[in-house]
Amino acid sequence: MKLLRKTKYLLIGFCFISLLITTGVFAAVTSNELGTHGGYDYEFWKDSGGSGSMTLGDGGTFSAQWSNVNNILFRKGRRFDETRTHQQIGDISIDFGVNYQPNGNSYLTVYGWSVDPLVEYYIVDSWGTWRPPGASSKGTIHVDGGTYDIYETTRVSQPSIRGTQTFQQYWSVRRDKRTSGTISVSEHFKAWERLGMQMGNMYEVALTIEGYQSSGQANVYRNNLIINESGSGGSGPTRVEAESMNLSGPYASRTYSPFDGVTLYANGDAVSYTQYFARDTHNFSLRGASDQSALASVDLRIGGEYKGTFYFGDEHPATYTIENVRHGTGPQLIELIVTNDNDTWDVLLDYLEIH
């Protein structure tokens, strides 16, 4: 019966994908546009001149290409409602991986804006032919295995999220280029503020590819935005949506009912992402459901080691917690994987919280 259900889902999925392709949902974005996709906010922005395209992938992933542009930005992350500071939102980090091939001036960066005051900011981990921003360093921050120089520049009567304005730019620029790893975004915000560079209420945090008077291409194959909603105190939960994790296995796919999440159908189906841990013991709570009345289960692995199993008794969403899990510190691979499929159930996953 399980195999028949899987075949049905695959046929439905094939028809659905065919419909999406026919209707152009998977077509590349080629003109200025913002929206949501895969649980992330995205934006394509280009001024006059040249061409570019952005193809949206699962979760935070996307690919980008640009040719002979003046200025272009491709970004995927999260927009906020401009009512909270970064301290009120929580500790923000991004686990990323990019195949980055610029030809000319370009940045691989965490990018965004704050308001009141209006600030455009960059945390640059790699670049093309020119290391930005061409100013004198105000200081440094040592974080995520590297040293970043901090800069502040002024833009006079330039485009912004509030129309043409004069505003400050804040920069952290890594001394040694890299195209993968963890970016502790909030640590840069704190370092800037220690230097008197005030941040206002948050508008956006996004992993971004920018091109300036250049051409190039990039494949953002990993982009996990993680927010510890407790703020800088670190005592509250870190929530990661299942649909923002990396899917793997023969059948794993997105689901939209009874919640936005993923469905794991068979042994080997999994979702995963990299989480940075400052301490070695946490509680892990997973919200999910079985696809019917049969008991469904999914294993928790951290750094490749089995840490416990989450169980869901029926099709009603519920939260199961594994307490006092010991694990390594620093960046750790988190996996939720099906290993005990008996062909009578599928497991649906909503989000993982780490306390």
Walk me through what this model shows.
The chain has 355 residues and is mainly beta. 10% of the residues lie in helices and 56% in strands. The chain is built from three helices and 24 strands. The protein has helices spanning 2-23, 86-89, 185-194, and strands spanning 33-37, 40-46, 51-56, 62-67, 71-79, 91-115, 119-127, 139-143, 146-158, 165-174, 180-183, 201-202, 204-228, 238-241, 246-248, 253-255, 261-264, 270-277, 281-290, 296-302, 305-312, 318-326, 330-337, 347-354. The strands form two sheets. The protein has a 19-stranded mixed β-sheet that branches. A five-stranded antiparallel β-sheet has the order 15-18-23-20-21, with no helix packed on it.
Q: Strands, helices and their partners?
A:
Blueprint: H1 2-23, E1 33-37, E2 40-46, E3 51-56, E4 62-67, E5 71-79, H2 86-89, E6 91-115, E7 119-127, E8 139-143, E9 146-158, E10 165-174, E11 180-183, H3 185-194, E12 201-202, E13 204-228, E14 238-241, E15 246-248, E16 253-255, E17 261-264, E18 270-277, E19 281-290, E20 296-302, E21 305-312, E22 318-326, E23 330-337, E24 347-354
Parallel strand pairs: 7-10
Antiparallel strand pairs: 1-2, 2-5, 3-4, 4-13, 5-13, 6-7, 6-11, 6-12, 6-13, 8-9, 9-10, 13-14, 14-24, 15-18, 16-17, 17-24, 18-23, 19-22, 19-24, 20-21, 20-23
Signal peptide: 1-27
Keywords: Carbohydrate metabolism, Glycosidase, Hydrolase, Polysaccharide degradation, Signal, Xylan degradation
Catalytic activity: Endohydrolysis of (1->4)-beta-D-xylosidic linkages in xylans
